[in-house]
Write a structure and sequence with these properties.
The complex is a heterodimer of chains A (114) and B (114). Chain A has 114 residues and is mainly β. Chain A contains no helices and 11 strands. Chain B is an all-beta fold and 114 residues long. In chain B, strands 2, 4, 5, 6, 9, 10 and 11 form a 7-stranded mixed sheet that branches. Chain B is globular and about 35 Å long. The chains are: A mainly beta (114), B mainly beta (114). Chains A and B meet through strand 4, strand 5 and strand 10 of A and strand 5 of B.
Chain lengths: 114, 114
């Protein structure tokens, strides 16, 4: 089945610096790649997503890039702030006997150091 | 405002007991999902439903069941709780299919099986 690998598992960056989280996927048919942010004690929340017909997407300080040939996509957070501290999950769609589902990576705990 | 709720938020049960976790959404979404979250594994799909009377198995469905009798609710039942089912459980819903649509997550239920 689909495998989504996410690295690193933990990441600490100085406030104001950039953070990059990378994911790889195995199913060449995957066509939707969302990123979720999970704050302590809460459910995950979508922060940005990208589809297979686009190479890059930006939303203020957050950007996602997709390389379909290499089967990897990355989350970039610039000018990091303390409120960016959270666990981030990447995901990719898989087609399971006609039903499309999301497979999640194992998560990255991002800590912003003031 | 529309929302997705889970109950109870915390549950302690004994091995062998039947447990039901509730999930209720007021978005009128057709699609509902149950995930479990464990350290080192991220979010893994247990069961999902694309409409009333529709249920499908996810990657970790053994020992769990769901039923969908209306649009708003997808209860998750552990038939005979096992210690390996100690986890945090998240319910989610979406308007469209898993591919290409935001999933809205509930706040989670922390289940401990002793």
């Amino acid at each position: 089945g689909e495998n989504v690998e996410q690295h690193p598992s933990t990441l600490s960056v100085q406030e104001g610096d950039s953070a990059v989280i990378k994911c790889t996927y195995s199913d060449s048919a995957s066509n939707y790649f969302p990123w979720y942010k999970q704050e302590l004690g809460k459910g995950p929340q979508l922060i940005i997503d990208i589809r297979s017909n686009v190479g890059e997407k930006k939303d203020q300080r957050i950007a996602v890039t997709l390389n379909k040939t290499a089967k990897h996509f990355s989350l970039h957070i610039t000018e990091t702030q303390p409120e960016d501290s959270a666990v981030y999950f990447c995901a990719a769609t898989i087609n399971d006997f006609g039903n499309e589902k999301l497979t999640f990576g194992t998560g990255t705990r991002l800590t912003i150091i003031p | 405002d529309a929302e997705i709720t889970q109950s109870p938020r915390h549950k302690i049960t004994e091995t062998g007991r039947q447990v039901t976790l509730a999930c209720h959404q007021t978005w009128n979404h057709n699609n509902m999902f149950w995930y479990r979250q464990d350290l080192g594994h991220g979010l893994r799909l247990i069961h999902y439903s694309y409409g009333v009377q529709d249920t499908n198995k996810g990657e970790v469905s053994d020992g769990y069941s769901v039923s969908r009798s209306n649009t708003e609710d997808l209860p998750l039942t552990l038939e005979s709780a096992a210690s390996s089912q100690t986890s945090v459980y998240f319910c989610a819903s979406s308007e469209l299919g898993a591919a290409g649509d935001e999933q809205y997550f509930g706040p989670g239920t922390r289940l401990t099986v002793t």
